[in-house]
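Quick one from the shared queue. A colleague (R.T.) flagged FAD dependent oxidoreductase domain-containing protein as missing a structural entry in our internal table.

Convert sequence to structure tokens.
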Amino acid sequence: MTRIVIVGSGVLGITNAYNLLKENPLNEVTIVSQNFPTDFEFKKVYTSPIAGANWESFATSDDKFVQEIDTVGYRKYQEFIKNRPEAGVTARKNTNLITKEAFAKAGNVKEIPWFGKGKFGIECGFRELNKSEFDNEKFAYGFTFNGLVIRTSYYMTFLINECWRLSGASEGPNARFSIRRNSIKKLSQAFELHSSGKCADIVINCTGLLARELEDLEPEEKKKIYPVRGVVFVAKNNTGLKDITVVELDLDDEALYIMPRREGELIIGGCFQKGVETKYVDDALRTRILGRCAHYLPQYKWDDLEIVREQVGFRPYREGGYRIERKGHIVHCYGVGGAGFQSSWGCVEKVANLVAEVENSCKL
């Protein structure tokens, strides 16, 4: 048996737990965290349950590393859509509209995403929009593909329940999966927190933004971690909008994205404010984001939009991109920014390979 402690219960932590339990019946996994997605209130920073979320890879045209990772995620979510409706993943057309101002800022060059070019054999129904399909006064071009919306709290709870199912027992000495509500100051402390009471063989660091608070994380690594604030509004969907719609602006820190959930809600965002950690939403930002709905998409009913709640999250970015790396018996998996859901499945495949390295080197 290999005793594994995962620190962090965001989408990366929970997906790692599920994957390690599923792929190796000899793994015994404990997740250590202060928060879990079924909680009514969260302590400290816990971003995943309040994310949108959809799949639209952020990888640039030459970033094959992230392209490969995100391809794994797209295919996995298609499996959930087809076979596991209770997972909280719903198929949606994803339409992007590029404003004339954004087009001009890009040098009047169309920027077609890598997944629209058939890389890695990804089949997502990508096509450019005809000019008859959008407002030519406001937009320069657009494209659409077969996307998806993830009801994040449902989905994360689904994965935890799958972990319990794979565990074979809900608790006790025969359980292969467990959760512990603990906070740690050092990753080294996590080795003592496996539910078996024995020292863990491997610790996986999925702490996201909180990695910068770990006392034994390398000082140079702490400096690389930073938040990018996001704000979304959850509204009742009485607008008639059925597709994910993204309006790309000529702004570096704001855009308009709308995600219709099957439960009758709209997720409306948003912003990308680097280094900002305030939790309140100012009136000016709220007015700008919601005002863009009627301005750019007047064909839908926005007059009676009912906002249910406002959500502020802090995307855990890292200078240099994703950190998926082994240091002895510790495996790091953090720094994915706003791509946690779309990149999670590709990330955990790489983590599983690193875990196997530890097992093979030590013959656990």
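The longest strand covers residues 139-150.
The chain is about 25% helix and 30% strand.
Added to the table.
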